Fold this sequence. Notes:
By secondary structure, the chain is an all-alpha fold.
Amino acid sequence: MNNKVPSRETCLALMKSAKMPEHIMSHSFVVEEVSTIIARLCIERGYELSIELVSAAALLHDIAKAKCIEEHCHHAEVGAEIVRAWGYPQVATIVEEHVSLSMADIIACPTESLIVNYADKRVLHDRVVSLDRRFEYLIERYGTTPQKRNLLNFKWKLYRKLEARLRQVTANDLAF
């Protein structure tokens, strides 16, 4: 398996080559910042994580967002296909997983994938916000049916559990 991780400069070039809109790039930069802070805290506590992998995945996690808004496709799946085609399978896996979460994931925490996933849920556009604020926005924007609202509320509860687990892992040092 190819374990190659693109450098930050390569990620920036890939973002530009994919014509990632400026506002999505701004969001990704903040997700990268939050992700690397959390990863460093976890590493300080003895967890084996790759800052480079976290950084690259955070930068590229929404690589297909604009395309999929236009084409009505699943941005995590399409983004993973794009990143895999560029030759970065580890990053592609995180891109694909950044919108899904299960209790088994939370128990296995922390992983690079969960850190990027959580950080993405803490960034609204280009600002760090509370998990509650982010999910209020998601429900307002995407909760167009009772089923979608129920699913988002279910996910909100899972992300609260993930946040509690990350706070436990980092000794409550999450400062945002």
